[in-house]
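Write out this protein's structure.
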Amino acid sequence: MSRPALTRPLRSDRGDLPRTDPERWRLNTDKVGRLNWIYVRDDDELRRRPQTPYEKYVLGLETGLPALPRAETPYDASLNGLRFLKELQLDEGLWACRYGGPMFLLIGIVGAHYVTKTPIPEEWKIEIIRYLTNTAHPVDGGWGLHSEDKSTVFGTACNYVVIRLMGMPPEHPVAVAARETLHKFGGAVGCPQWGKVFLSLLNLYEWDGVNPIPPDMWALPDWLPFHPSKWWIHCRQVYLPMGYLYSEKVKAPLDPLLESLRSEIYTVPYDTIDFSKHRNDISEIDIYYPHTTILNVVNSAMVLWEKFIRPDWVKQRARDTVVDLIRKENQNTDFLCVGPINNVLNAIVIYCEEGPNSKNFLRHKERFADFMYISEEGMLMTGTNGVQCWDTSHTLQTICTIGAGDLPEFRETVKKGLKFLDNSQFTENCIPGSYRDDRLGCWPFSTKDQGYTVSDCTAEALKAVLMVQKLPNVDTLVSDERIYPAIDVLLSLQNRGNFSPGSFASYEKIRGTPLLELVNPAEVFGNIMVEYPYVECSDSVVIGLSYFRDHSSYRRNEVVRAIDDAISYIKSEQDSNGGWYGSWGICFTYAAMFAIEALSYQGEVYANSEVVRKGCHFLAKRQEADGGWGESYRSCETLTYVPHEQTQVVNTAWACLALMLAEYPDIEVIRRGIRLIMSRQQPNGEWKQEGIEGVFNRSCMIEYPNYKFYFPIKALGLFAKKYSNTPLF
């Protein structure tokens, strides 16, 4: 069953669970956006450093921000929203957020601490238990793949282990409910592969029951079409350390708590389980991407290879190659890695290779905190080390779009944001031999330290920089000479030849054939094996290059060709019903906004473009009775539009923006959406959190909590500029 919305008071506050003092949490950051939450025990330091509005806001405390004059017009409402959002900006110029949603991450950070004998801070333990208590399904007590998902074996088994390792006794009602649900599902043997890996590391499952994750493939010639360097970056960087840990059969020493857990997460005694017979057992409630026959044949062959054929020198060569690439990943990302899963797995590998006191492992330990985020509900692990650059770019664009950039009250906000983007631009490429593309001149999704550029993140940051630096009273911080390398990289990322020509993927050009998806081993994620073309990424690059085309003549002909080819791809991806599938946001409303914006910058609008007309009709037909739009995350899973049970401010803003950019002639449709956005605005200018906003790999949802600010603000302000700023109520 789907998960109902969170209710207040929180479940953790209704029982006997302890909590930390929310007024003692502080957020440390730096000029490139590092986010570290610390718990301050010293009273003098508390007095010297009062909580900021953002710290209070994310912890659910009273922010002290005043009620604003009631907005009568869309522009007044947009400025009220911007006034609230301005107060959440950090001193370093960025906007932070809790990038939560995936419910399979905490097992990684807790497991890494346990395997490496690294103590977990007491305040983390308390707040992790609170978070998992508050996100447990209110009916059956389990957890899913993400925070709005039904309960699954993966989520329930992993998070049950977490609450027990964090100190919750097995007789606590939260633990009892979760354990009963896990047993109804048949126990932890039904976990998908990643769950089995984490449980094996904790000595709660046997490696013989994990389908092969051979590191040997990294020792093959990299010109082979199936070499891991051809895989999508997240896939290859997760399976890189997983292969090492699988091959070396790394596991934590058994202790009384782990012994007890062995008896709690299965329906039969642990010693009676033949784990090798459960390699392919995945609960029906979990599986999203079933095994192919080809994968099953490959897995069987790899078991024979490992047990009876593989020479020791091959295993050692593969191990050396993997460790070398892990060290390069650590250097390229200052030990943050591309995401939280390979961050913790790389840390365990370095612990095994170099020991607990090595400089590299100690740096890994320092970086663990970059992924831990405190909130009103407790402490979670984030999907990356943040969304800093992406959110800041979009916020600055919003400010410029609605004409607020030169208003005196927002000038410093804009200047600080520009300075953050200035500090966030990459100034060097990766270490040779890392299987990484160029990044010089580009921008990241989160922070410069994290080390990865994404096509749309560079394009949106580029657009933001160009927009802000055209404002009066704003100095040019990012020169054209610094922008040119970003243009070079964007042009190099466009897919040509056989792989969706004209499109843009996420991190890299498409390197491998989609046929590799036939051996996708993850079971709960789709489209993970190789890069894929994405409408939203292609849209953003078109938008960024269009702004640059109007700004500079650098590589003009190539820029124009890139835009034209990307537009052709975007048009080709439109469904027959007029919609575009969104791969990074929920879902068709998200993609429609980006696609129509990209088309509008080429002069294609409702009046002259059949593609735009179809896109507008798709949206208009799905407007709800209250004037809003609401799209369920089920759209992402089913690849067809599924209405949410309630309209959503974010979906409504996306739809309104698309229709306005398209110059849709029925203004009343847009006006009704704008009226709904205004009706949900709070007296202090904010909007309350509604449904989850983002997605990756089709099946896992992820939070973008700042979307509920800058997209509604942008929609309100653009409506006022394009139509009228008269009262709507």
